[in-house]
Amino acid sequence: MKDLKLSVGIDIGGTNTKLGLVNTNGNLIKRVNFSTNPLLRFSDYQALLTNALEELIQGFENSDVLGVGLGVPGANGNTGSIPEAANIPFLSEVPLKNVLESAWKLPVFVAKDANAAALGEMLFGSAKGMQNFILLTLGTGLGSGLVLNGKIVSGSNGLAAEYGHSLLVKNGRWCNCGQRGCFETYVSATGLKRTALSLMAKSNQYSIMREIAPNDLDALKIAEAGEAGDELAKKAIEKTAYWLGSKMVDLVVLTDPEAIILAGGLTNIGDYFLSLTKVTFEEKLLPMFKGMVKVKYSSLGSDEAAILGAASLPMNA
Amino acid sequence: MKDLKLSVGIDIGGTNTKLGLVNTNGNLIKRVNFSTNPLLRFSDYQALLTNALEELIQGFENSDVLGVGLGVPGANGNTGSIPEAANIPFLSEVPLKNVLESAWKLPVFVAKDANAAALGEMLFGSAKGMQNFILLTLGTGLGSGLVLNGKIVSGSNGLAAEYGHSLLVKNGRWCNCGQRGCFETYVSATGLKRTALSLMAKSNQYSIMREIAPNDLDALKIAEAGEAGDELAKKAIEKTAYWLGSKMVDLVVLTDPEAIILAGGLTNIGDYFLSLTKVTFEEKLLPMFKGMVKVKYSSLGSDEAAILGAASLPMNA
Description:
2 copies of one chain form a homodimer. With about 325 residues, chain A is α/β, with parallel strands linked by helices. In chain A, about 35% of the residues lie in helices and about 20% in strands. Chain A contains 8 helices and 10 strands. The first copy, chain A, has helices at about 40-55, 95-105, 115-125, 190-200, 220-225, 230-255, 270-285, 300-315, and strands spanning about 5-10, 15-25, 30-35, 65-70, 110, 135-140, 140-150, 150, 260-265, 295. In chain A, the strands form 2 sheets. In chain A, strands 3-2-1-4-5 form a 5-stranded mixed β-sheet. In chain A, strand 4 (about 65-70), helix 2 (about 95-105) and strand 5 (about 110) form a beta-alpha-beta unit. Chain A is globular and about 60 Å long. The mean pLDDT of chain A is about 95. The interface of A and B includes residues 155, 249, 253, 255 and 258 of A.
């Protein structure tokens, strides 16, 4: 039997760099990780990345490797460079695609992390076979990936899908981007935490969360508190689901997607959050869209999703 | 010299049905109009439409007619039918594409009016040659057409681009769709009028507009009042431009378009409205998008735009 074609997916984050060898069935065959040291110069990072790549494909020299896909926050999918890599300073303004392609003699594809993840969902995950869907990754921030007419929407400058910075609340919370009221300041793992803090400020109501230092609070702990009957935690989750469900409606009237896929740390809250989100969403949809749009969690393991997404880039080229 | 290929564009509205013969350079060669009687049965309307089509192509029997494109409010571009034709009851649930194609023995294309208009802008108008742009038609309501990756976004059910019903103001004005605060209740010719009325209600400030019956007030009259120094009229225009500029920002972070094209009755206000809109828009854009997105009026005559858009459908097939 002939070997399946293989693809390398690389997820470059501010903390870790994760490489994976993936076959065209979406199986992650082998992994190599190393920690991203943000103080490096790019040339040193490139050497580490090349070593890791060699280790990854060792033993697969006779396989047909389609190429290397990189998912990078803030990447410009049209140019293959990273205009502003806030958490990974050594990547800023590096023409990543060109540099790595000429060094590695392999086709290299670079995309914004959320766009790569959306492609992964289309090939292997919850959006398998769909031509029109939206992925929202609810983690530290809110990432968004759009697939319309079967293609990733990267925009005229490669900058599309920054929907985390759309407006949710006029004069609302400050965002790292310098604006106020951005969607991601409310709907993300960080947003949920801010909502919990805001609720703790607004009343003196008892809450287990008052025993946890804000830096130690996360979506999972808030979910556990809620499950244990903590009223403030439940309220924080309910508000977050309400904001998400309301804003998703705007995406539907614009793009009429088959599904909206949710991924990232906030989805660790589980079915409670998903069903609350669906209730608001269905209630606020225009009649013509009611019951038409699937809302579901990513079926890809959160640790693997980014690698699978990046590995999808060469497969979809 | 060989004749250019021709295409028939039909703009079906609640008041008039307009047909035009258009060449591939976007020249409107011949027109036929008749008034749409909403009380007709579909079979009678079809007979009128067929007569008008025959009159239109009379004398062009030897030309190469690519097909007939129809732009219809509320049309489903995927099925070629009109699920709910609010103002044209006899079209409801008629499988328009199939019926006309088998009657006329010509390729027939049906699209939502705003989507057809967007295609017209791409082939002949302000978005000529662009692969990624958004058209907003600001008339009685607010229509929207998206072109991304060079293709009309019609969505998974053919229902995309109802952005007039996205949320602008929570618990805001009632919309015909049954919801509150929809974008089009503020930003459209009708929205401007409502804003003028609301301002007249809020104060007793002098305004020429108080001499005009609300049913006689329109965007042009409000613009004239503003030009004559009417403070309330100016304020109504300023607020409308502010709402439009703010909401356009959300479209940009999602889709990174090359341009946003504005058309429809509200644009009759002219440069004053356009420049105010641009000021808010640029001010609220994320830094990475500042200065990157063109905002301009449609260059197609408002009377011709709908016909040219519909005629574009067979040309782009």
